[in-house]
Amino acid sequence: MKFNIAVVEDDTTSSTIIINHINRFSKENNEHIEIFAFEDGDEITSDYEAKYDVIFLDIEMKRLDGVLAAKKIRTFDKDVIIIFITNMPQYAIKGYEVEALSYLLKPVPYFAFQQELAKSIERIYKRKKQYILLKTDNGMVRMGVSDIFYIETMKHYLIIHTKSGVYKMKSSLKKLIEELNNSFFCLCNSCYLVNLDEVTGVSGDNIIVNGDNLKISRPRKKSFMEKLASHFGGRL
Amino acid sequence: MIEPLLDIPRIYTAIAEWLFCLSFIIFSKKRLKGIPRIIAIIGFLGLIIAHQYVAGILPIAFWIPGMLFAVLLMLLFIYIVADVSIFTAGYLVVQAFVVAEFAASLHWQIYYYAYWYFDIRFIFFSVILLVLFYGLIFIVIYILEKRYRNKGLITDIKQNDLLTFVGIATVIFTISNMSFISINTPLSGRYPAEIFYIRTLVDFAGIVILYSQREHKLVIESNLELNQMENLLYKQYEQYYISQESIDVINQKYHDLKNQIIVIRQEKDQGKREQYLLDLENDIKWYEAQYKTGNQVLDTLLSSKTLACIEKNIHVTCIADGKLLDFISTMDICSIFGNALDNAIESVVNIKDSEKRLIKLAVFSQNDLLLIRFENYYISALSYVNGNLSTTKKDNRYHGYGLKSIKSIVEKYHGSISINTENNWFRLIILIPIPKIN
Description:
The complex is a heterodimer of chains A (236) and B (438).
Chain A: E1 2-8, H1 12-29, E2 32-38, H2 41-45, E3 54-58, H3 66-76, E4 81-86, E5 103-105, H4 110-126, E6 131-136, E7 139-144, E8 148-154, E9 157-162, E10 165-170, H5 173-180, E11 185-189, E12 192-195, E13 199-203, E14 206-209, E15 212-215, H6 218-233
Parallel strand pairs in A: 1-2, 1-3, 3-4, 4-5
Antiparallel strand pairs in A: 6-7, 8-9, 8-12, 9-10, 11-12, 13-14, 14-15
Chain B: H1 10-25, H2 34-57, H3 63-81, H4 86-117, H5 125-150, H6 159-181, H7 192-266, H8 270-288, H9 296-311, E1 315-320, H10 330-348, E2 358-366, E3 369-377, E4 383-385, E5 388-390, H11 393-412, E6 416-422, E7 425-433
Parallel strand pairs in B: 1-2
Antiparallel strand pairs in B: 2-3, 3-7, 4-5, 6-7
């Protein structure tokens, strides 16, 4: 797999350091990486192409600062991993507004850099889109796993709630769990298999998925909540 | 030596064992409720009586296994009826057993005395005495247990507590029954009255020892709590002190700044003036760099922890939406972040390569869920125990201590925590549902 990495940095010293780090990382880990260098925030945002996997984005830039650039990028591209670079320690970076939960301090040391990049690449591998085939009553449907909200069992049928509607098929949860083979799915009680990504809230003994209240059974509650925490906490 | 009335009737022993188990679990949390509970309680009375009856028929060689089985039955009784850990159940059984021994012994001693010395020999006399003595002892235990319940002490029994108790009980039981096995030991009595008296007395001493152990534990635990409170207060004071110091520094800077402005105003050379202003800007940049997460408590706490980290060459990065923490009390924020960061600092501070002393903190939301994530790099002698990864003992202990208090706070907010260690990163994730404001 090839990775596209952008470096947006107006300070050439810092920019060189980062590019050297990327090259070193690429050699050490045997990853094929193409680097795109930009000298200011506005350079990457104008004619933005959603082709990058990771963007290293300096915060303090003259024309368009990193935080504003990130906001612009997010309007085009929800998936790219943004990692800020800054020379101001303790500065309150509102990274959570642009789904960036870590940053690196200048001058960027290789160890911290390598840790961040390795984690990002692992993340990219993990979120590759996965599909399953559903034999529904109305024929075969190819379904993106991430488009499933949750799956309900009813007698010998499975009811699959997805972003493109509700499907019914004859099968068992056990079979489907094997087929999904995916850690993003978890049982909240014996008849609901839930896509953890789609859980929007917890209220009392219910979880909220796509606006529906699903009951968490008492014996599963502890492990379900732990899995949920670990799932969302794994965000970058 | 064989004399009538030497042995306590088995049914009396059975009643004592059952009754005093019951006396110790009256205030415990119920595992079974309603009718199943009543059935279990009555069922165990039947089982214990049946066991005593069988044990009475068996040859004397089975005396010790019989005793052990009786204890096992009592353990099951307590464990099934009360919602306690197995250690706590064991702890309660030991006490119930010694008290039952004492009650049976005392009752029989008095009965024996009345029988031989006052010639009171009608059959129901022993039953009347039984109701009287067992009842009295039951009431005393009831009052004592109620007192312990009010102080909240039966919940946290550890393996060590149980071992101490079992040890004491074994010694008590051995000494008190010595005379029944052989009269040729220095600890044996020679006459039944004497033998009974020794047994009652030793059992009584046993009860006193066990209760004094409990008192001791109570004192230790309340001291611990006091210490923790003091610690917390001291920490808050420390933070206040640090904030105070920063204010002093800022006041100092204010005076410097005022003087510099005077100099700049008098400077006629445009270039020099520009340079002065640039220097000034660089100077104050560091004072802008305070945490501004949107939550004051978190800001103060982070500032003080970061100061400690700068000193120790630890790199902390933090991305936090402090506004999300509005529904969590000041005390709880201090405790969660203080403990978790202290753990992280303690874990990274010993890493030789200071580049690897990394701590990362994130506070963010995912729809209506608040997530707080602490991460730190670690290098420790990881060891495999039965195929499972386990960290060094030292690591477990300090992480364990702070984590316990974090966990109890998070549970208060109906949240949960998850811990994982992956690629040399220790990761603590807290998830709390954000309460809806109606």
